[in-house]
């Protein structure tokens, strides 16, 4: 039996003995990295009570999924370099969700209770105005629509809207497959109307919403022109 085959066999036996499905082991591994910070494969194997080859195999899978990253470090700045594994930002967002949306809703509801619903609408419109001001230099009025749209994709991607463009019969559509503000948008509709008004001003053409995630549809689709 070659060393590679032996390592794989040991890894499989370790998991079988523990009665732990591979996905559950990966979840436990991510939880350990969250709780204890970056660690070596040997440290993780000891905590999981599996062999080092089994831990490395799971870490390789998690790296391929973009959930784990590796750095080469020297213990105490000296000695033999070792591979230290830690969570990526993607893993933090996907596996350990934050409660930012709930906090935002709580704040806006408190503003509404104290100062009325009009005050909330004013706050959300002001937020949209600030974003419009940031994008204005990127999308000057004289720029052709297609170029404006292609320039807009980058900032919208960074903001988490997962956008793409579609064209049919010479007419463009901007499609947003994700809404990072969905919980807020469902409760405060002015956020969506302010977004559509912003696109109308930035792109310089009529904008029609054909799909709306806040109403349960799969995307926010804007027909332009």
State the gist of this model.
This protein has 225 residues and is α+β, with helices and mostly antiparallel strands.
Q: Secondary-structure blueprint of this entry?
A:
Blueprint: H1 3-18, H2 22-36, E1 39-40, H3 41-48, H4 52-64, E2 68-73, E3 82-87, H5 89-95, H6 100-115, H7 117-136, H8 145-158, E4 163-168, E5 171-176, H9 182-187, H10 190-203, E6 207-211, E7 220-224
Antiparallel strand pairs: 1-3, 2-3, 4-5, 5-7, 6-7
Helix pairs in contact: 1-4, 2-4, 3-4, 6-7, 7-10
Description:
This protein is an alpha+beta fold and 225 residues long. The chain has two domains: 3-95, Winged helix-like DNA-binding domain superfamily/Winged helix DNA-binding domain (Arc Repressor Mutant, subunit A, Orthogonal Bundle), CATH 1.10.10.10; 100-224, Muramoyl-pentapeptide Carboxypeptidase, domain 2 (2-Layer Sandwich), CATH 3.30.1380. The chain has ten helices and seven strands. A four-stranded antiparallel beta sheet has the order 4-5-7-6, with helices on one face. A three-stranded antiparallel beta sheet has the order 1-3-2. Strand 2 and strand 3 (82-87) form a beta hairpin. Helix 6 crosses helix 7. The chain is elongated and about 60 Å long. It starts with a helix and ends with a strand. Mean pLDDT is 85; it is low at 3-20. This is HTH marR-type domain-containing protein. Residues 24-78 form the HTH marR-type domain. It comes from Deinococcus radiodurans (strain ATCC 13939 / DSM 20539 / JCM 16871 / CCUG 27074 / LMG 4051 / NBRC 15346 / NCIMB 9279 / VKM B-1422 / R1). One of its GO terms (molecular function) is cis-regulatory region sequence-specific DNA binding.
